[in-house]
User: Which sequence fits this backbone?
């Protein structure tokens, strides 16, 4: 009998409507929690409680004010979270597994690893970005177009101190160095220790904005790090770097 009553009150269309709204609200909350909007989420929650109480007590002026602020608040969210919204839209439909890149060969990874080993031993700073399924051109700035083959000597030369292109990142697309001296977006994460500087923040930034893999060699310590998906893997040895790049670039048995 209870089931029949519920069936009369709620049809399939109503159920779909309720579930859609619930998923939409959950998506907004999850987005705010995962980004820098956690504090804003708390403000919105308190504002919603006050608005609800104002409606119950029938405080007309306060209710009117909240109705007007709601429109301004939505506009402010779009402005404040423009980078995060752009990233989310860019990743709509992104595959959970990376397609094996037929244009990238294991010898390219080996050359990158050898160059990083050389620079690590001599504490030469470096920032190498490997494209995957996303084109990073719209995310980086100030690049110098190269379209050169990936060689150990060229990578080392590009990052050699005092050379014109050493200050910035190189972009590797397939088996070619597409760009050099690129300026990457900096991560705003507060979790990164202070000892890590601009290169590490840039590596995290590009990995947050795109699905690219970024390799960093510290100029201060010679430490090798790898950033992917907004996470930084630190203090890697050349063998660990080789294994991670092989997996991430779709040349291993498993792909992240």
Assistant:
């Amino acid at each position: 009998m209870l089931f029949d009553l519920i069936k009369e009150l709620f049809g399939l269309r109503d159920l779909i409507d309720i579930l859609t709204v619930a998923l939409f609200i959950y998506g907004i909350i999850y987005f705010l929690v995962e980004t820098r909007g956690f504090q804003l989420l708390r403000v919105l929650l308190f504002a919603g409680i006050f608005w609800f109480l104002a409606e119950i007590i029938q405080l007309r002026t306060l209710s009117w004010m909240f109705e007007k602020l709601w429109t301004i608040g939505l506009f402010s969210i779009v402005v404040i979270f423009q980078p995060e919204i752009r990233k989310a839209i860019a990743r709509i439909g992104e595959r959970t597994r990376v397609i094996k890149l037929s244009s990238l060969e294991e010898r390219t990874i080996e050359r990158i690893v050898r160059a990083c080993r050389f620079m690590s031993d001599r504490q030469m700073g470096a920032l190498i970005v490997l494209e995957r399924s996303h084109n990073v051109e719209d995310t980086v700035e100030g690049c110098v177009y190269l379209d050169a083959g990936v060689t150990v000597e060229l990578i080392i030369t590009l990052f050699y101190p005092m050379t014109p292109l050493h200050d910035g990142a190189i972009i590797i697309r397939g088996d070619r160095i597409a760009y050099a001296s690129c300026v990457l977006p900096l991560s705003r994460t507060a979790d990164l220790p202070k000892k890590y500087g601009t290169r590490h923040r840039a590596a995290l930034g590009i990995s947050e904005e795109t699905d690219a893999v970024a390799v960093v060699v510290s100029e201060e310590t010679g430490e090798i790090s790898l950033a992917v998906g907004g996470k930084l893997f630190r203090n890697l040895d050349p063998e660990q770097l080789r294994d991670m790049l092989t997996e991430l670039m779709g040349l291993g048995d498993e792909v992240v």
Summary: The chain has two domains: 2-90, 106-248.
